[in-house]
Amino acid sequence: MEIFVKHLHSFLAYLFLVSTFVSVIYAVSNYRKNEYSSTQFSLAKLAFIASHVQLLVGLVLWYINGWFSQLTSNTSMVMKDSSLRLLAMEHPLINIIAIAIVTIGYIKVKKASTALEKNKFNLWFYLVALLLILSRIPWQRWIYDHM
């Protein structure tokens, strides 16, 4: 089961990263044109949904892998080891913050009345969330697991 959850977590990460990146590109290209397409909104919604499902799967994986028990039982050891700290604390915490930013951005895009506002919210909220998530991905572990 752990392998399935890991693969699902990775698949959702790819889905989120691609949909968020393309959504940001759309926002940049449509910003000057003052238009907001249904495709762009669909990409923003896909990133929103993928991020929330990714969060649930990630929390399950975090518990299955034992990061929660390591963190609660031996906090000082986890905090001293940078790779353990990344997986047990930094990755989940920063990604939860990024998902909250995506959520706020998605709600603001839905409520915005003009294409300019929609593009502005889509661009800045999704870009910040994307950068936060990219900063906390355990790249070596992720690449090694997929080779």
Key words describing this protein structure:
147 residues, mainly alpha
Describe the protein's topology.
Blueprint: H1 2-31, H2 38-64, H3 67-73, H4 75-80, H5 82-111, H6 115-135, H7 139-145
Helix pairs in contact: 1-2, 1-6, 2-5, 3-5, 5-6
The whole-number mean of residue pLDDT values reads 89
Coarse shape? elongated
Q: How much strand? A: under 5%
SSE order, one letter for each helix or strand: HHHHHHH
What kind of sheet is the major sheet?
Answer: none
The overall strand count is 0
Count up the helices. 7
> What's the assembly state of these chains?
single chain
Number of domains: 1
Unreliable stretches: none
Fraction of residues in H or I helices: over 70%
**Class by helix and strand content?**
mainly alpha
Q: In whole angstroms, how far apart are the ends?
A: 20 Å
Roughly how many Å is the radius of gyration?
17 Å
Written account of the structure:
The chain is an all-alpha fold and 147 residues long. It has one domain (2-145). The protein is 87% helix and 0% strand. It has seven helices and no strands. It has helices at 2-31, 38-64, 67-73, 75-80, 82-111, 115-135, 139-145. Helix 2 packs antiparallel against helix 5 (82-111). The longest helix is centred in the N-terminal third of the chain and has 30 residues, at 2-31. It is elongated. The mean pLDDT is 89.
